[in-house]
Amino acid sequence: MRIPTVLYIVLTPVTAYAGGMLAYLLTLRVGWEETIGAELGFVMFWGAAVYSVMVPVYFVLMYVLARRSRRRLLARSLTFGFLVSLVPGLLLFLPFGPEAMLSAESALVAVAFCTAGLLFGLCSWAYWTYLNRNVGQTREGV
Questions:
Q1: Which tens digit of pLDDT belongs to each residue from 74-86?
Q2: In three state form, how does the secondary structure of 43-99 look?
Q3: For residues 79 and 125, is the Cβ–Cβ distance under 8 A?
Q4: pLDDT (tens digit, 9 = 90+) per residue, 66-120?
Q5: Other beta carbons less than 10 A from residue 59's beta carbon
Q6: Packing angle, helices 73-93 and 104-133, rounded to 10
Q7: What mean pLDDT value characterizes the chain?
């Protein structure tokens, strides 16, 4: 396995998760003027649990998008990463009724997962662009 592929597989989920958690904390601080306090471990654990289920979905989706068409790959990666990231919020809050989807907690979860989805899409686009840049080049002297 090549080094860029290993970096993509390892760093993309970590970057997206860290960005999602940072977006959650910033939204909580700026939007609601609150700090997370003792709930940080709870939020990070359950966020990571739900996100770990979403990572294979993101990888498969980005692979299919990159293989199907290379036109407008950035826009497609960002759009589908964003749309897929809405699923965890729906699954978490839909059992509590439709009004729960408009709650402040739902907005925080949506911000975290949508940011993670956008970052995943951006990293995937960068990876696939890098791979396509090297297609057709020959390795001389090897």
A1: 899 999 989 998 8
A2: HHHHHHHHHHHHHHHHHHHHHHHHHHCCCCHHHHHHHHHHHHHHHHHHHHHHHHCHH
A3: no
A4: 888 778 888 999 999 899 988 888 888 888 888 888 888 888 889 999 999 999 9
A5: 16
A6: 150
A7: 86
Hey, where are the domains in the chain?
3-133
Token pair 């003027």 in the structure block, residue:
33
Q: What is the distance between the alpha carbons of residues 13 and 26, in angstroms, rounded to a whole number? A: 20
CB 66 within 8 A of CB 74: no
Single-letter residue type at 131: L
Between CA 47 and CA 113 the distance in angstroms is 9
pLDDT at 138: 47
Residue 67 near residue 61 (C-beta atoms within 8 A): no
Question: What whole-number distance in Å separates Cα of residue 59 and Cα of residue 57?
Answer: 6
Question: How far apart are the C-alpha atoms of 81 and 113, rounded to whole Å?
Answer: 9
